[in-house]
Design goal:
Elements (H helix, E strand, L loop, with lengths): L8 H15 L3 E6 L5 H13 L4 E2 L3 H12 L16 E6 L3 H9 L3 E3 L11 E3 L2 E2 L6 H9 L3 E4 L2 E4 L3 E4 L7 H9 L5 E3 L2 E7 L2 E4 H4 L3 H22 L6 H20 L7 H19 L2
Antiparallel strand pairs: 1-3, 1-11, 2-3, 4-10, 5-9, 6-8, 7-8, 11-12
Length: about 290
């Protein structure tokens, strides 16, 4: 009979396989899967696996042991241990961890509250005319803190209200009414808690970057830098064609203003002279 400290061979093999998968990819991440329905999780796993990002699902104890084994070769992985809590999975990936974070964000979708959950942010209900018919619902809304009233035969919420503050518990009463108002305050999906890329650990707050906003900022910075370089006459492969074009335009304008004739300036000089002659004629009369 196995001793008390005996570990089944299949468990040892499982931890070894998990550790090998973690070591074999440049990026390893801890993700939260709480609240994700089994069918949805399987679909997400298939989609990410097809893109070379396998999700490793196992008991937290096995995930911790796998990380501890892999830490021998990659010490940076130790930072992931603090994030193996609650319902957890590991994800091994290749590529940019910022892109990986955005991939996982796209798996998230709004979901109704059932009651008892912690509000991830302020739940604000805007003033509106509801689809409810006048009746007991008005009292239910008022009892739960919604500014409900009856106006012109319709149930209305008279002003915006923060029904639950961030970090507060969503009561079952409030959850039921939010759902009836088609307000889904929670999100379900994969939640990246932290990632190690090479020897660098990236916490969630570092990875949560608005890439579209950063692209806009970068484009604006490029435009401003280009304008400064042109103003200074600073020559680079990008600015030289623009500097030459501007110099040519200014030289042409100066030659026309001075009446200096060349094959290129002759036509605009004659056009200018004709316009001036007509203006003079209009001043002197017929």
């Amino acid at each position: 009979m196995p001793g008390r400290g005996h570990v089944p061979p299949e468990r040892i093999a499982r931890v070894a396989a998990l550790a090998e998968t973690i070591r074999s990819h440049p990026t390893a991440a801890v993700i939260g899967v709480r609240g994700v329905p089994a069918a949805a999780l399987q679909k997400m796993r298939r989609s990410l696996r097809d893109r070379g990002h396998p999700i490793l699902v196992a008991p937290n104890s096995a995930l911790r042991h796998a990380i501890e084994v892999a830490v021998v070769d990659r010490p940076a992985l130790k930072s992931l241990l603090d994030h193996v809590t609650d319902q957890t999975a590991l994800l091994s990936a290749t590529g940019n961890p910022f892109s990986l974070y955005n991939e996982l964000v796209q798996t998230r979708s709004p979901t109704p509250a059932r009651g008892g959950e912690i509000a991830p942010k302020d739940i604000v209900v805007s003033a509106q005319t509801t689809s409810f018919k006048p009746g007991p619902i008005v009292g239910e809304l008022q009892h739960a803190g919604f500014p409900a009233a009856i106006e012109k035969g319709k149930v209305v919420l008279k002003k915006d209200v923060t029904i639950v503050k961030a970090g507060g518990v969503i009561s079952r009463e409030v959850a039921t009414l939010l759902t009836r108002l088609d307000i889904f305050p929670l999100e379900v999906g994969l939640n990246l808690r932290g990632a190690v890329d090479g020897d660098t650990f990236y916490p969630t707050e570092v990875l949560a970057v608005d890439l579209d906003a950063k692209r806009t900022e970068l484009a604006l910075a490029h435009q401003r830098a280009l304008a400064v370089a042109l103003e200074l006459g600073y020559a680079t492969p990008v600015t030289i064609p623009l500097l030459v074009t501007r110099a040519h335009r200014r030289a042409l304008a100066l030659a026309v203003a001075a009446g200096y004739t060349t094959p290129e300036t002759l036509r605009p000089i004659l056009s200018k002279a004709l316009a001036q002659a007509r203006a003079l004629q209009n001043l002197t009369g017929p």
